[in-house]
TrEMBL record:
<feature type="binding site">
    <location>
        <position position="139"/>
    </location>
    <ligand>
        <name>phosphoenolpyruvate</name>
    </ligand>
</feature>
<keyword id="KW-0342">GTP-binding</keyword>
<feature type="binding site">
    <location>
        <position position="158"/>
    </location>
    <ligand>
        <name>phosphoenolpyruvate</name>
    </ligand>
</feature>
<keyword id="KW-0547">Nucleotide-binding</keyword>
<keyword id="KW-0548">Nucleotidyltransferase</keyword>
<feature type="binding site">
    <location>
        <position position="155"/>
    </location>
    <ligand>
        <name>phosphoenolpyruvate</name>
    </ligand>
</feature>
<keyword id="KW-0808">Transferase</keyword>
<comment type="similarity">
    <text>Belongs to the CofC family.</text>
</comment>
<dbReference type="GO" id="GO:0043814">
    <property type="term" value="F:phospholactate guanylyltransferase activity"/>
</dbReference>
<comment type="pathway">
    <text>Cofactor biosynthesis; coenzyme F420 biosynthesis.</text>
</comment>
<dbReference type="Pfam" id="PF01983">
    <property type="entry name" value="CofC"/>
</dbReference>
<dbReference type="InterPro" id="IPR029044">
    <property type="entry name" value="Nucleotide-diphossugar_trans"/>
</dbReference>
<dbReference type="InterPro" id="IPR002835">
    <property type="entry name" value="CofC"/>
</dbReference>
<protein>
    <recommendedName>
        <fullName>Phosphoenolpyruvate guanylyltransferase</fullName>
        <ecNumber>2.7.7.105</ecNumber>
    </recommendedName>
</protein>
<comment type="function">
    <text>Guanylyltransferase that catalyzes the activation of phosphoenolpyruvate (PEP) as enolpyruvoyl-2-diphospho-5'-guanosine, via the condensation of PEP with GTP. It is involved in the biosynthesis of coenzyme F420, a hydride carrier cofactor.</text>
</comment>
Length: 211
């Protein structure tokens, strides 16, 4: 099965606010963009991915991610993360109603294409499924096979909400790079230990210089 990934991204000025203690306000937007670039580049390199749609109103991020090969959809509902995901999914299925879609966070800078392929292949038999984040509280990926609505319930403690909504939880082994979202300084250190993509490596090096 070939998937369309829907990746939501807040305007960079507001993105990754919990990282401010680590980055300060000057470097934070650039780091948020680097995370999104490395996430999108790895997703597009995944053999199970047909295409990538990014839902964002950020002009710079839109241009940079389109240059990597993503399709950009404006965040027309302006109603938060789940509304943006529903809108992106609807935009995909207007063109191809039988698309297999998966929502993926934009803050997975260590993402490895073959680990993402493993997750998506495991997701294929289920109408809806999800992967818990590294902290075990949230969600980094939610899938909807053809014929199923995505019904996203991201936000605080989304792992339990997605389970309660009937989505099947996917196995956690061997897919650390798909689970390692970066919300805090500790998360960033964990992602750097796994090995991040080139844009995040450059942006993180600037943090050390600024220290
Ligand atoms: N398009 C869009 N994406 C969003 C919106 N809210 C959150 N996101 C994205 O959804 C994912 C998870 O969002 P959050 O954890 O709420 O925000 P964050 O920027 O990652 O981090 P914090 O500011 O620290 O909460 C990230 O990829 C965000 O950029 C929204 O209103 N619209
Ligand atoms: C929105 C979520 O992610 P974060 O950990 O970035 O808040 C989530 O896990 O549902």
């Amino acid at each position: 099965m070939q998937w369309t990934l829907v990746i939501p991204l807040k305007p960079l000025e507001r993105a990754k606010s919990r990282l401010t203690a680590t980055t300060g306000d000057t470097l934070r937007p650039g780091l948020a963009l680097a995370f999104a670039q490395d996430t999108v580049a790895a997703a597009l390199a995944c053999p199970a991915v047909r295409d990538v749609v990014v839902v964002t109103d950020d002009g710079l991020a839109g241009r940079e991610l389109a240059a990597l090969g993503a399709r950009i959809v404006r965040d027309e509902p302006a109603g938060g993360l789940n509304a943006a995901l529903a809108h992106g999914t609807a935009a995909v299925r207007t063109g191809r109603p039988q698309s297999a879609v998966a929502a993926l966070n934009a803050d997975l800078p260590a993402l490895r294409p073959m680990e993402l392929a493993r997750v998506l292949d495991r997701a294929a038999p289920f109408p809806r499924s999800f992967l818990a984040d590294a902290a075990g509280i949230g969600t980094t990926l939610l899938s909807a096979a053809p014929g199923s609505e995505l019904r996203p319930a991201f936000g605080t403690a989304s792992r339990s909400r997605h389970a309660a909504s009937g989505a099947v939880e996917l196995p956690l082994e061997g897919v650390d790079s798909v689970r390692q979202d970066v919300d805090t300084g500790d998360d960033l250190r964990a992602a750097l230990a796994l090995g991040v993509g080139p844009r995040t490596a450059t942006a993180a090096a600037r943090l050390l210089i600024a220290d």
